Amino acid sequence: MAPHTPKPTLLPPPGPIVQQYHLLPTGAVSPINSNPNPSSSPYPPLPPLFLSALTVRYNVFSLGQGCNPALEIDADDAVSWHWVICAVGGDWKQGERGACGYDTLGACPVPHACGWSG
Known about the structure:
Layout: E1 5-11, E2 21-23, E3 29-31, H1 48-64, H2 75-79, E4 81-88, E5 101-107
Antiparallel strand pairs: 1-4, 2-3, 4-5
């Protein structure tokens, strides 16, 4: 197996678009309000790097720790910076949705902006 090189990649706060989606029990991401005509969906696509972060979070928190995936996307994601460690080269195989991540960190720039009270 050829080695891969970790590459940290930064995604600025994606904004309120993330609150229009939720994570399903299968790990798939779906608009909160289903659209009967998907070809004319009013929902812009989520940034691919955010999808990579969600894949990591789903694997760790939902599959690994049994957390409810429906709680994974929240208002804090809209204002937080997201770092995703991507694998470059080697035998790395991308996961579903083209996810490149195998580690992630989300950081809110100002604690009170993320709804923290303490």
